[in-house]
Amino acid sequence: MRNEFNAELSELGTLLTDMASVAEEAIDLVTASLDPAKQGSAQEALSLTKNMDQMEREIENRCVKLLLKQQPVAHDLRVISAAMKMVTDLQRIGDQCANIAETSRFLTARGESPKLEKIRSMSLRSGAMVKQAIAAYVTNDLEAADRVVRLDDEVDALFLEVKGELVDLIAGNRKEADQAIDLLMTAKYLERIADHAVNIAQWAIYCVTGEIQPTN
Amino acid sequence: MQAGTIISAQDLDLYYGENQALKKITMDIPERQVTALIGPSGCGKSTFLKTLNRMNDLVPNVRIEGTITYRGQDIYMPKLDVTWLRRHVGMVFQKPNPFPMSIYDNIAYGPRTHGIRNKRQLDEIVERSLRGAAIWDEVSDRLKKPALSLSGGQQQRICIARALAVEPDVLLMDEATSALDPISTSKIEDLIAELKKQYTIVIVTHNMQQAVRISDKCAFFLLGQLVEFGDTTQLFSMPKDKRTEEYITGRFG
Fold first, then answer.
1. pTM for the whole thing?
2. Which helix (H) or strand (E) holds B121?
3. Which of A74, A209, A210 lies at the smallest CB-CB distance from B249?
4. Contacts of A75 in chain B (CB under 8 A)
5. By CA distance, what is A72's nearest residue in B?
6. What is the pLDDT of residue A215?
7. Which of A199, B65, B148, B227 could form a disulfide with B13 if both were Cys (CB 3.0 to 4.6 A apart)?
8. Are A104 and A42 in contact (CB under 8 A)?
9. Contact between B236 and A77 using a beta-carbon 8 Å cutoff
């Protein structure tokens, strides 16, 4: 029963998974672009974020069409309304990547940046969180979604460490102060990406439990 | 029984001959709210609705066990005056069924049966009932015309007005909009929202979106059993029973 509707719902999941993969790739690329030798990847990331804008429109259109055609209730309703919320978070992740790409142009113009190691860790974690959050939604996996929510603590902790290091840098060495500010902004953008991944995970939880989680 | 309950069914079994149509139904219907009964054809929802004002008495070989109370009164006790019960618990049917007489006489029929003869009093009742059913403005200038000359949607509101004329407490509606076009349907839905300020309403509907739109509580019946009963929003967003989920999402069977 409802074969066509089931197929459309599963397509919606596939589209969101694709968009999450693109988001993860964009996060990788912009983080790589912080290295002057790989500045070119910023441009690649920007073109991915443009794709993400199109994907967002496509997913939204499908959700509206499904609401209209199927008048969904129960789990179907939760799956579609969650998709509409999650796609906005994914698109915001794209915006944050674009912000990082922009910042990396100024940063790399001044040569190699110090203190990239922890920023790379933040990037790896937040990218993985985005992908895992969408996977949890597609598979109705409550535990996986909970794990994503908990991973955010690690990203937050890394952000504080990065901040501490950069404050020291600014205090001790005026030459690198400019770079330190840009790096701090980059770290903040990554921290925001992880927050969006948490939002997505909370919508995945909503799909299973019907309860909307309190925002942090 | 929950506070605010107007009708309460306890362990209600109903048999048509050998065939058991309702199985151990226990359900408290809240006062001045809209309760919707949903479920596939043959699930027992209309049978249950009809037990609430003993319309099933008219069916041969029907046997009922368990109790139904209306305001604390057992409605199946032997000496109960069924006319009294039906005055308080009125009914509107799927197909508009006005009597083949004038609009005025349709509405005045019930009050006359209950002994009201005074013309001015009847005029008042007719106007109040027609206003209550949101049809006064459409018929006030032709009260002497046959009710059957009206459109289906208007006829159904005449039937609602006729039910209101005897000042009932509870209104039972058995798929009261399924024979109507969308405009008449939404007029009746608006009317139900208005009526619940004064009356308790129990509806049977096959239109699930209608149940979502107009009911406060919703009961899902399946194979003569009450599977789930709760707040409509809860039932349609996060049903507790897998069978409810399957039915309302159209994946049943």
1. 0.87
2. helix B119-132
3. A74
4. 245, 249
5. B249
6. 65
7. B65
8. yes
9. yes
Using CB atoms, which residue from B209, B236, B253 is nearest to A74? B236
Residues of B with CB below 8 A from A76's CB? 249
Residue A216 has pLDDT above 60, yes or no: no
Pure H helices in A33-73: 40-70
At residue A186, does pLDDT exceed 60? yes
Calculate the alpha carbon distances from B179 to B94, B153, B158, B176, B205 in Å.
7, 8, 15, 7, 11
In this structure, of A70-74, A177-181, A199-203, B195-199, the range with the lowest mean pLDDT score is A177-181
Please tell me what DSSP assigns to residue A111.
-
Closest chain B residue to A6 measured between Cα atoms?
Answer: B251
Contact B236 A5 (CB under 8 A): no
pLDDT of residue A213: 79
Q: Which of A17, A14, A13, A16 is nearest to A56 (CA)?
A: A16
Residues of B engaging A, defined by a Cβ cutoff of 8 Å: 208-209, 212, 236-239, 244-245, 248-253
- Judged by CB atoms closer than 8 Å, whether chains meet at B245 and A74 is answered as yes
Query: Which candidate, B43, B50, B14, B9, places its Cα nearest to that of B29?
Result: B9
CB atoms within 10 A of CB A166: 23
Buried b (16+ CB within 10 A) or exposed e, A170-197: beeeeebeebbebbbbbbbbbbbbbbbb
- Tell me the pLDDT tens digit for each residue of A22-33: 999 999 999 999
ipTM for this prediction? 0.79
Rg (CA), chain A: 19
Q: Which residue of A has its CA nearest to B241?
A: A74
Describe chain A by its helix, strand, coil percentages, rounded to 5.
Answer: 90, 0, 10
- Write the residue in B249, B252, B253 that is nearest to A73 by C-beta: B249
- When CB atoms are compared, the residue of B209, B248, B253 closest to A74 is B248
* Nearest C-alpha neighbor of A186 from the set A216, A162, A212, A156: A162
